[in-house]
Specification:
With about 270 residues, the chain is of the alpha+beta class. It has eight helices and 15 strands. Helix 4 links the parallel strand 11 and strand 12.
C-alpha cells in the first residue's frame, strides 16, 4: 500500500462533520417511526438492519465517493470499496440498531478514517440528543447541539475497586471462557452496567465510565472510537494488547494503569 500522500486533516475532519450532519438528517427521519427491520442472520439469532441503516450508509458513501474519489470506504451494510486505498472511511450508520428499533437513544453513527492502519480521526454522532464526540489531531471534543465544543478527558487514577465497567449485553459473551473472563473483571469493580454500544466508549472518553469490555466487534464498530479515546487520555486494545482496528475482543480504559490491570484479569 502506497503511503506517499499526505492528508489535510482539518479538511478531513470538516468533511467528517458533514457526513455526521447528512447521516443524522437521514436517521432521524426513521427514528421512533417503526422502520422496516430485516434479520441478516439465517436460522437462529438476530442481527437486525433497518431501512435507516441502509439509507444513511448510502448517503455517506455517495458523499465520500464524490468528495474523495481516491479514498476507500469500509461500511457495515454494503462492504468495502478501494481496498488498497491509503485512506479509507470506516462507516457504521447506526451502531446500536437494537436500541434504535426500540426507540432508545443509546445509538450513534460512527465515522472513522484510516491512514493505512492508523486511525487518524473519529466522530460519533447522536442526532436525536444532539450529542457529538470527535477527535482532532491532538484532543478529543464534545458538543451538544449547536453549543460550543469543549475538550474532554478520561478519568485518571481510578482504582479497580472504585471503577465502573460497561458492556452492551452479557449475551454477547457466547464463549464460556469469554463470559468467565468478563465475570472475573466484573467482580473486581465497583459497578457494572449493561447497554450503550458506542455510547459507552464516548462516556469513557468524557471521564464518566472507567472500563468498557466487549467481544466479537468488527472494524466498523471500533475504528472511529479509537482516536476519541486515545486523545482523551485513555487506552484501547484487544484483550491481549494488540491494536483494536480489526475489532475482536476489546478492552478500553480511561487510565492506562487500569487498562493493564483489566487485561491481566481478562487473560488469566
Amino acid at each position: 500500500m502506497s503511503r506517499s500522500h499526505r492528508l489535510n486533516t482539518r479538511a478531513a475532519l470538516t468533511f467528517a462533520h458533514q457526513l455526521a450532519d447528512r447521516s443524522g438528517d437521514v436517521t432521524l427521519r426513521y427514528f421512533r417511526k417503526s422502520p422496516a427491520v430485516t434479520n441478516k442472520l439465517k436460522g437462529n439469532g438476530f442481527d437486525p438492519v433497518t431501512a435507516a441503516d441502509q439509507a444513511a450508509e448510502r448517503t455517506m458513501t455517495n458523499l465520500v465517493v464524490r468528495t474523495w474519489p481516491e479514498h476507500g470506504v469500509v461500511g457495515e451494510e454494503y462492504g468495502s470499496t478501494a481496498h488498497d486505498a491509503q485512506f479509507r472511511w470506516v462507516l457504521d450508520p447506526i451502531d446500536g440498531t437494537r436500541a434504535f428499533i426500540l426507540g432508545q437513544p443509546l445509538w450513534g453513527t460512527l465515522i472513522g478514517l484510516l491512514d493505512g492502519d492508523a486511525p487518524v480521526l473519529g466522530v460519533m454522532n447522536q442526532p436525536f440528543t444532539g450529542e457529538r464526540y470527535w477527535a482532532s489531531d491532538t484532543h478529543a471534543h464534545f458538543r451538544l447541539g449547536d453549543g460550543r465544543a469543549k475538550r474532554i478527558s478520561t478519568r485518571q487514577g481510578a482504582s479497580l475497586s472504585s471503577a465502573s465497567l460497561a458492556t452492551t449485553h452479557p449475551d454477547l459473551f457466547t464463549k464460556a471462557r469469554d463470559a468467565a473472563a468478563f465475570q472475573r473483571l466484573s467482580k473486581k469493580v465497583q459497578m457494572t452496567r449493561y447497554g450503550g454500544d458506542c455510547y459507552n466508549y464516548c462516556l469513557l472518553a468524557a471521564g464518566l465510565i472507567d472500563l468498557v469490555v466487549e467481544v466479537d466487534l468488527k472494524p466498523h464498530d471500533i475504528v472511529a472510537l479509537i482516536p476519541i479515546i486515545e486523545r482523551a487520555g485513555g487506552r484501547i486494545s484487544t484483550w491481549d494488547g494488540k491494536p483494536a482496528i480489526h475489532g475482536g475482543r476489546i478492552v478500553a480504559a480511561g487510565d492506562p494503569k487500569l487498562h493493564q490491570q483489566a487485561m491481566k484479569i481478562l487473560m488469566q
